[in-house]
Design goal:
Elements lengths: L2 E4 L2 E3 L19 E3 L8 E2 L4 E4 L2 E4 L6 H27 L27 H6 L11 H11 L7 E8 L11 E5 L10 E4 L3 H8 L4 E3 L1 H8 L7 E4 L4 H4 L3 H4 L17 H10 L1 E5 L5 E8 L4 H17 L10 E8 L5 E2 L2 H6 L4
Parallel strand pairs: 9-10, 9-11
Antiparallel strand pairs: 1-2, 2-3, 3-6, 4-5, 5-6, 7-13, 7-14, 8-12, 14-15
């Protein structure tokens, strides 16, 4: 019968040259091999045809009877070959493939962790990935994970059950953080007339009119917030393509278009933050610095939660809050228990 020299090839001895009635096959041997690029059941011209995963070759021409006989022999030989390979695997022979164990970051189960720094991989062990934490515990963990060499910003990320592509499910508002943001905010004001001196006296860093508009068109962007009085908005409209992508375009909903310039300047310098839901319904909101005390971070965070809850879109249906996470700018996220977060009360 057939003998297998290797899992990839099989040869038939002279005694297994099919039947005597094949005539010319008595003077040749039939070889079976497993090539890399062979199409299934493809008959090639003249003296070779393939019957995947076998290729048969012979020195003579084939007729239909010959082809049928060779096909039968091919299937029988392939079955024997598979049996031989399976037996080799069971005995731990050449059929068994030894895999080299992975080491270091390559052995990590999550692909995203393989590009993380050693510092990040260490600090993320401080929290369970899918566990929901109470607010007080989460704030404490947040401060432990913020161990970079600079003062990290702490962020809140709320996934809401809204679809912003509908007008009645869009969310854009502002929140006054009682303890501030920990950042120095540079405020620019676009105004004219008597409001010009009023803005300067209120502490605005930059005040201008049409001249400031021309500077912005030329690339001047040395400010964090741009306020404008309503009478300047027709002229500010030409800056939409420049300020819009940067989130600096004055807007009444964000409190950056107002007649009470001194109050607006004071609020933004103290810690007024603008937020909006992105196209996936997630709100990203900074609420302080990691160097703040746990109490101050909790107060700011609760102010943000109350603002998002108060400004719930009219078209939002069902469960409004889907998930909530907090993190430092260079640390892992910490998942919050929604019920505890909404019911939390300061002592």
């Amino acid at each position: 019968m057939a003998t297998a020299g290797a899992p990839s090839a099989l040869s038939l001895p002279l005694a297994h040259r099919l039947e005597p009635e094949l005539g010319f096959l008595g003077a040749c041997a039939v070889a079976f091999s497993r090539p890399a690029n062979v199409k299934a059941t493809l008959f090639t011209p003249a003296r070779t045809f393939s019957l995947y995963p076998l290729v048969l070759q012979c020195g003579g021409a084939f007729d239909s009877r010959t082809v049928k006989s060779i096909a039968v022999a091919a299937f029988a030989a392939e079955a024997e070959l598979e049996d031989a390979v399976e037996q080799g695997k069971d005995e731990g022979g050449a059929g068994a493939v030894a895999t080299k164990p992975k080491k270091g970051k390559a052995a990590l189960p999550l692909k995203r962790d393989r590009s993380r720094s050693k510092r990040f991989l260490e600090i993320q062990k401080l929290r369970e990935r899918k566990q929901e934490y109470e607010l007080k515990t989460a704030i404490s963990l947040l401060k432990q994970t913020a161990n970079s060499k600079f003062a990290e910003t702490v962020e809140a990320h709320f996934r809401l059950n809204i679809d912003p592509k509908y007008n009645d499910q869009q969310l854009r508002a502002t929140v006054n953080l009682p303890k501030g943001t920990g950042q120095t905010v540079r405020v620019a004001v676009l105004t004219q007339g008597e409001k010009f001196d009023e803005a300067k006296n209120a502490g605005a860093d930059i005040v201008g009119g049409e001249d400031l508009i021309e500077q912005i068109k030329g690339g001047f962007m040395d400010f964090d917030k741009l306020l404008a009085t309503p009478d300047m908005m027709p002229k500010v409209a030409s800056l939409g393509k420049i300020l819009g992508p940067r989130g600096l375009m004055p807007n009444p909903k964000a409190g950056t278009v107002t007649t009470n310039i001194p109050q607006a300047i004071a609020e933004f310098k103290k810690g007024k933050v603008e937020y909006r839901a992105d196209k996936t319904g997630i709100v990203h909101l900074p609420f302080g610095k990691a160097e703040f005390s746990e109490e101050d971070l909790t107060i700011n965070f609760l102010a943000a939660v109350r603002s998002v809850e108060t400004n719930k879109p009219s078209g939002a249906k069902g469960v409004y809050w889907k998930s909530a996470h907090i993190c430092s700018s260079m640390g892992p996220s910490i998942r919050l228990n929604i019920k505890d977060m909404l019911d939390f009360k300061l002592p």
